[in-house]
Design goal:
The chain has 446 residues and is an alpha/beta fold. The strands form two sheets. Strands 7, 8, 9, 10, 11, 12, 13, 14, 15, 16 and 17 form an eleven-stranded mixed sheet that branches. The protein has a six-stranded parallel sheet with strand order 3-2-1-4-5-6, sandwiched between helices. Helix 4 runs parallel beside helix 5 and helix 5 packs parallel to helix 10.
């Protein structure tokens, strides 16, 4: 009986890579999808900047327009899929669609991270759903896993490789001993990185995604502006090699941890032990490690971008929306996993209050007493050493010019203590350059 219902009509905003992939997946898997959803699903409308441009999908039977407002106001469209990116026009269109009683599916992490609180509130008032699985980690169903699959757990922490471009660069630097700039140029040539790669390599893209993951994990409002963000452009081949020698891999991680005093929300280069599964996620792949109190650590791995992996998440969201079209809005899965009135006001910790371990690389004169001075400063600031490497660079002409590179891995400490120690170490006469500091996470199960 259900399948005799009229197909649900979907309007796409944007018919580029992900839009075209979405049309292809919906058409190719139409029968399977309707068996799952209980109704047929068809793309009836789509907007694009240039409707005459060649597409990766067939557009027969789709009403094309260059004006996206036509799609969000059309009475025949039940679900609007926003795939145009950015957070200005997209925000206006999504809010207009909601005001017109449309359900929303979006792959736009910046939109959700920056305006999600406003959008979800508007959707709740209108009794419509906003689904955003494709906004984080492409085809990996991480939102659903945390929001629904792990609903019985207190999430303790999560750590993710959630930007494929950055991961590709660090993988190439490690495996082929190449420098950051040459790998970035290749990533741009291959289409993995934009002409302006700032969002990827400086961690802004990952910070958008981490904002969303942390909200769902801990039941806190979206707070993108409070994410500590550090990029990978200063990572050198030297640090990649030393990390490897010590048994670690450098990854660009988004980390969020619930502590007694608040929630850590940070994106930065991180040393992780090579034996961890997530340390072996290479190239443009994504992975998210989530630790729940009942389940322990769980790992989600897959393609973080691309036409069909992202379309997989978009279509999954469309099916979810179709399944609940007729249900009571009060009984749907809440947008941020927790009931809207039950979100917590746990503070976001400033980076100075975060507790982590560190890798330090110190360039110093190779003379008596330098090492003792450095270890004393660390001890005075409550920082204990886990392991150490010393590499000497001999200068046969004048022994006074001999240099040593000292690598120290510390146990966990509070960042403000490390800041204090580093300002004193940097002030030592024997220390020639500022100390290189990279955070380190063991990502243990306990």
């Amino acid at each position: 009986m259900e399948n005799l219902l009229e197909p649900v009509k979907v309007g796409l905003l944007g018919l580029g890579t992900v839009g075209g992939g979405t049309v292809n997946v919906l058409q190719r898997n139409a029968e399977e999808i309707s068996r799952r959803a209980g109704r047929g699903i068809v793309v009836s409308h789509a907007s694009a900047r240039d409707v005459n441009k060649p597409r990766i999908c067939k557009t027969d039977g789709i009403q094309l327009t260059e004006n996206p407002t036509d799609v969000v106001t059309d009475p025949d469209v039940s679900i609007v899929v926003e795939l145009i990116g950015g957070d200005t026009l997209a925000r206006e269109l999504v809010l207009t669609a909601i005001a017109n009683g449309k359900h929303i599916v979006t792959a736009n992490k910046a939109l959700i991270a920056k305006h999600g609180n406003e959008i979800f509130s508007a959707a709740q008032k209108q009794g419509v759903m906003v689904a955003f699985e494709a906004a984080v980690a492409g085809g990996i169903p991480i939102i659903k896993a945390i929001r629904e699959g792990l609903a019985g757990n207190q999430i303790e922490w999560l750590a993710g490789i959630i930007n494929g471009t950055g991961n590709f660069i660090l993988t190439e630097m490690r495996d082929k001993q190449r420098d950051f700039d040459s790998v970035l140029a290749e990533a741009q040539r291959l289409g993995y990185a934009e002409a302006d790669p700032t969002f990827d390599v400086e961690g802004i893209d990952a910070a958008h995604k981490l904002t969303i993951l942390a909200s769902i994990a801990f039941g806190i409002p979206l707070q993108f502006e409070k994410v500590y963000t550090e990029g990978i452009s200063k990572i050198t081949g030297e640090d990649v090699d030393y990390a490897n020698e010590l048994g670690f891999t450098i990854k660009h991680l988004g980390v969020s941890r619930r502590t007694e005093s608040g929630v850590e929300l940070r994106v930065h280069p991180t040393l992780i032990p090579k034996r961890r599964l997530i340390a072996n996620v290479d190239g443009v792949m994504n992975a998210v490690l989530v630790k729940g109190d009942a389940v322990g650590p769980t790992l989600y791995y897959g393609a973080g971008a691309g036409a069909e992996p992202t379309a997989s998440a978009v279509v999954g969201d469309i099916v979810d929306v179709v399944r609940v079209l007729t249900s009571d809005p009060e009984n749907r899965v809440p947008h941020l996993a927790f009931q809207p009135e039950s979100l917590s006001d746990l503070p976001i910790l400033p980076i100075e209050e975060v507790e982590t371990a560190y890798y330090l690389r110190i360039a110093a004169s190779d003379q008596t007493g330098v090492m003792a001075n450095i270890t004393t400063i660390l001890a005075d600031n409550g920082i204990s050493i886990d392991s150490m490497l010393q590499k000497e660079h001999k200068c046969s002409i004048n022994p006074a010019d001999d240099k040593a590179t000292i690598i120290i891995v510390t146990h966990t400490t509070i960042e403000k203590n490390m800041n204090e120690a580093l300002s004193k170490i940097n002030a030592l006469e024997a220390v020639s350059d500022d100390v290189v500091r990279i955070r380190l996470e063991h990502l243990d199960a306990d």
